[in-house]
């Protein structure tokens, strides 16, 4: 039962940011659609763009996508699926000095 609850929590940790990203995308889409729809209206002289709705949508979208992307990145790093440039750097071993090696002259 404990494993089922852990998996349910893990799924919810991915679904909630995914839903917020989808809702943020819808807010941005609606703001743009309303602006272009007002541009086509003959009675409106200067259409207003709803910046508040667009910025709130962008913030929700970026937070949701960033969380899911970070989740996948760190999971892949844990399973060693990443290319070498994303792996943690390991320090190079120090070179022995010439005084340590008696064979060299």
From TrEMBL:
Region (Disordered): 84-105
Bias (Low complexity) ranges: 95-105
Spans through the membrane: 49-74
Key word Membrane present: yes
Entry superkingdom: Bacteria
Keywords: Membrane, Transmembrane, Transmembrane helix
Pfam families in the record: DUF2627
Record protein name field: DUF2627 domain-containing protein
Organism: Cohnella herbarum
């Amino acid at each position: 039962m404990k494993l089922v609850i852990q998996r349910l929590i893990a799924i919810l940790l991915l679904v909630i940011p995914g839903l917020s990203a989808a809702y943020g995308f819808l807010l941005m889409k609606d703001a743009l659609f309303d602006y272009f729809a007002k541009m086509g209206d003959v009675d409106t002289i200067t259409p207003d763009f709803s910046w508040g709705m667009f910025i709130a949508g962008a913030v929700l979208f970026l937070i949701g996508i960033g969380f899911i992307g970070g989740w996948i990145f760190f999971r892949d790093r844990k399973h060693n699926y990443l290319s070498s440039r994303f792996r943690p750097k390991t320090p190079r071993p120090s070179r022995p000095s010439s005084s340590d090696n008696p064979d060299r002259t």
